[in-house]
Amino acid sequence: MLARRGTSAREVALDMLLRVETEGAYSNIELNRTLGAAGLSRADAALATELVYGTIQRRLTLDHWLSRFVARGLDKLQPWVLALLRMSLYQLVYLDRIPPHAAVGEAVKIAKKRGHPGIVSLVNGVLRSLAGCRDELGLPDDPDPVRRLSLKHSFPEWMAARWIEVYGEETADRIMASLNERPRTCIRVNRLRGGRRSVLERLRAEGYDAKLSLITQSGIVIRRGGNLADTDGFRGGEWTVQDEAAMLVAEICDPEPGMRVLDCCAAPGGKSTHLAELMGDVGEVLANDIHAHKERLIVEQAGRLGLTSVRTLVGDAADLPYRVGRGTMDIVLLDAPCSGFGVIRRKPEIRWKKKPEDIDELAAVQYRLLKAAAAVVKPGGLLVYSTCTFEPRENGEQIARFLAAHPEFAPDADWPRPVLEAFRGAGLPEPDPGTGSLTLLPHMAGTDGFFIARLRRLK
User: Fold this and answer.
1) In Å, what is the CA distance from 346 to each residue of 23, 31, 89, 132, 340?
2) 292-304 as b/e, with b when 16 or more CB fall inside 10 Å?
3) Which of 9, 79, 324, 348 sits CB 3.0–4.6 Å from 57 for a disulfide?
């Protein structure tokens, strides 16, 4: 049930937290569909957004503190009561601009509306106790780096252990800290509708704190402003909201006008439409997705941007060799389904939803799709594989396995010059010559975490 108009920001946030926790909803989707219906002011919508993302992000740490003040145990609480306590404690600890009495008082109001006197008493007592000692709340200096970083940054221990194993304790610490930062907004300028600098000047004139992306040729980074998808520029096809790392995928594909390009897992169409823009809308971009209901999203994106070269297909990407023909495409992009660790800033519940066994299941699907995508590449053509994660089993290990089994492909680390020059200027690593790939960790440039590999089919 969507929030009614007139509902407070905290009640709206509480309802969204419950849907994420108990119904498996995604926080970003819930925010998009709920905030408009609730009719909140801009300030209240910002508060609700902060409460949803922050409470989900810091759940483990919040529960560590709450467990000291709830005598009967957190698992005995009704889900809405636990969510209310978490959300209220998040305000007490992490939001300095909210007075403690306001956070406690608003929580008690909600408890009175939804619960019996015993629950009201519990909420009031626990939060008043926490408010009285919030400056003394700390975390144990655990000698075990897994437990210490897990509790410090509020990530499951298995994730902390995996990232420490792969990247070392210092880098794992920076990764987790970065994934708890507020995601910034980036837009991709449609070069068919105008230049990047003219759009930048227009945004600044309208009061946005904007700057040119340092690592992409199409991007503008917005550090402060409103919803860029709710603007005349967006509706008129002048730009698309997209993270810089996602923009890099199409730029590394480097398509030319007149080419035939295939995007195997295309919805909602961000990379497909970027490829078409880079081609000057001359040629053909086949945008395939397994979900029929998502085809409309691709069609709407292409229409909004004024693109005619994008054609949609619906079906399992594993069947593409039979549907579009073997060896028929100049460029094939496989932006594979993945664990999504690189976008935890935008979807913080991923950390609580994913399990270690999910990685192996995803890796099996990815390799099956990678083999099918490769079959469609023509001799001399490109195969680009990308994911929004930094898990090696889904990335580097996949590419190494694929290259060992497919001698007709070779790694291509000769990425487009503008990309390499931008990376050097930003102090980012260059692609590995042995795999033609790069892992962009989330703390390196403030982008989503991404993996991109570029492989060439030999003639």
Assistant:
1) 18, 11, 21, 32, 10
2) eebbebbeebbeb
3) 348
Determine the Cα angle at 244 with ends 383 and 335, to 5°.
30
Catalytic residues: 388
Provide the 3-class DSSP secondary structure of residue 231: coil
Nearest to 435 by CA among 456, 420, 458: 456
**Cβ(289)–Cβ(314) under 8 Å?**
yes
Measured CA to CA, the distance from residue 431 to residue 271 in angstroms comes to 20
DSSP secondary structure code for residue 448 in this structure: -
The phi, psi pair for 70, rounded to 5°, reads: -110, 100
Q: What is the pLDDT of residues 97-143, one digit of tens each?
A: 999 999 999 999 999 999 999 999 999 999 999 999 988 888 988 99
Give me the residues paired with residue 241 across strands. Answer: 187
Q: Where do we find the tokens 């399992």? A: 316
- Please report, as a single letter, which amino acid is at residue 317: A
Global pTM?
A: 0.93
